[in-house]
């Protein structure tokens, strides 16, 4: 393997190169429930008003307001009941003054009606009704278009569709919505020392944390993870496993095997293909990186370093923006906040440090040490403190930028 001599790539440049290479996935008409949590790929405008017709908000009697304006408990108004309208049973289209029509919640109010008297204010009469309280004009009538007018934007492009959006689209008669599908992400970890959780460990083996962590991060980012699990350090085995998986991948993410070791199979297997860039990015953790395309379909591949914290931080810095762009989600990068740091720290010159931290109310406390193996500390963190490459130390109380790890965006 030739020695790495080129200067590390600045983080922002690596992100820019990745985003340049990624095109949003093609758009599909998705049945409404399939579109839950997907970003809409169209501005949906209202094809109809909501409510679509004037209708009753109460079970009661449709009346002409003037007829009942003086109704009081001690001086009730008596009206003949000339008909009945249930929801979905609009047999009666108009009514005359001096009459009442039984009406149910949601039923269209007949022409001429300008108030609804709820049952509770009446004797619930069938042939005649006694009304003991006056409604205001228009009371309990839900007007056509008072909620949504034709042409209103129901959801704008890029909106991540939640249950309320799905409900609104259904209410407006849309059976489908254009959205981008979830990216399919094959996650493979490499290392002959790796064992599946639940299996016995030898004195020199460890459990495969990364394939689980990365697959979970894919799902949290809106993708469909296909976790292959651990592949041994063997170029042929890795190449075969990768080739088998390409058919179901929009992206492949591997962990491990990209540094300077004697068994760095990922680098060895993919270097030959000439379409994957390997090099150092000026970030700690997460220095050794690889990014490119593999296979006939030119499937995107990220080869992340094996140390668990390096793998996770690399995912957040590099894979997540790509996943978001594939889905048409914006912004591409995690939300950041300005915070005061509680403790001072030293940083490696020339590398953007991503320090694990606990953020709360504009204050951040660093969690654990620098080591890229400290997965226990990683689990305690809820943010990454971004220490720029040119900053060599921070003092308590200094202002920093933090990336929020658990925030929906
Ligand atoms: N001579 C040098 N050695 C190393 C350098 C260097 O520049 N020169 N860089 C170090 C840095 S920085 C990192 S990060 C790692 C990256 O190494 P690899 O990507 O090749 O990863 P491995 O060697 O396979 O593993 C590193 C470490 O992480 C553990 N690991 C790997 N996969 C998993 C997994 N799925 N679950 C849990 N833990 C995993 C593995 O056992 C190792 O301890 O290289 C440094 N070395
Ligand atoms: O870059 Mo390594 O990721 O420092 O641990």
Automatic annotation (TrEMBL):
Pathway: Cofactor biosynthesis; molybdopterin biosynthesis. One of its GO terms (biological process) is Mo-molybdopterin cofactor biosynthetic process. CDD domains: MoeA. Residues 186-325 form the MoaB/Mog domain. Pfam families: MoCF_biosynth, MoeA_C, MoeA_N. Its EC number is 2.10.1.1. Its cofactor is Mg(2+). GO terms for cellular component: cytosol. Keywords: Magnesium, Metal-binding, Molybdenum, Molybdenum cofactor biosynthesis, Transferase. It catalyses: adenylyl-molybdopterin + molybdate = Mo-molybdopterin + AMP + H(+). One of its GO terms (molecular function) is metal ion binding. It is an enzyme of class 2 (transferase). Transmembrane segments: none annotated. NCBIfam families: Glp_gephyrin, molyb_syn. Catalyzes the insertion of molybdate into adenylated molybdopterin with the concomitant release of AMP. Belongs to the MoeA family. This is Molybdopterin molybdenumtransferase. It comes from Nocardioides guangzhouensis.
């Amino acid at each position: 393997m030739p020695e790495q001599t080129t200067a590390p790539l600045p983080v922002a440049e690596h992100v820019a190169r990745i985003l340049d290479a990624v095109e949003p996935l093609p758009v599909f008409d998705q049945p409404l429930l399939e579109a839950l949590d997907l970003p809409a790929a169209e501005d949906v405008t209202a094809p109809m008003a909501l409510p679509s017709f004037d209708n009753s908000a109460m079970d009661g009697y449709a009346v002409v307001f003037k007829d009942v304006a003086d109704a009081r408990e001690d001086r009730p108004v008596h009206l003949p009941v000339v008909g009945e309208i249930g929801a979905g049973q609009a047999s009666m289209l108009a009514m005359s003054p001096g009459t009442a029509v039984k009406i149910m919640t949601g039923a269209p109010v007949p022409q001429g009606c300008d108030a609804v008297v709820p049952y509770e204010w009446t004797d619930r009469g069938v042939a005649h009704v006694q009304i003991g309280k006056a409604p205001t004009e228009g009371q309990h009538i839900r007007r056509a278009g008072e909620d949504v007018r034709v042409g209103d934007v129901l959801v704008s492009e890029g909106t991540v569709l939640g249950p309320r959006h799905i409900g609104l689209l259904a209410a407006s008669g849309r059976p489908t919505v254009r959205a981008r599908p979830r990216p399919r992400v094959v996650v493979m970890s490499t290392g002959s020392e790796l064992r599946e959780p639940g299996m016995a460990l030898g004195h020199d083996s460890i459990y495969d944390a990364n394939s689980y962590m990365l697959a979970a991060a894919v799902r949290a980012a809106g993708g469909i993870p296909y976790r292959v699990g651990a592949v041994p350090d063997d170029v042929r085995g890795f190449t075969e496993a990768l080739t088998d998986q390409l058919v179901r991948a929009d992206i492949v993410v591997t962990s491990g095997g990209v540094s300077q070791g004697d068994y760095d199979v990922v680098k060895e297997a993919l270097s030959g293909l000439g379409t994957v860039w390997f090099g150092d990015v000026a970030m700690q953790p997460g220095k050794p990186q690889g990014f490119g395309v593999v296979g006939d379909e030119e499937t995107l591949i990220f080869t992340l370093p094996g140390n668990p914290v390096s793998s996770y931080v690399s995912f957040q810095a590099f894979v997540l923006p790509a996943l978001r762009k594939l889905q048409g989600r914006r912004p591409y990068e995690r939300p950041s906040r300005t915070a005061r740091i509680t403790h001072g720290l030293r940083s490696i010159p020339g590398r953007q440090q991503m320090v694990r931290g606990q953020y709360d109310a504009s204050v951040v406390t660093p969690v654990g040490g620098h080591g890229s193996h400290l997965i226990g500390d990683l689990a305690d963190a809820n943010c990454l403190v971004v220490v720029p490459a040119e900053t060599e130390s921070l003092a308590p109380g200094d202002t920093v930028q933090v990336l929020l790890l658990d925030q929906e965006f």
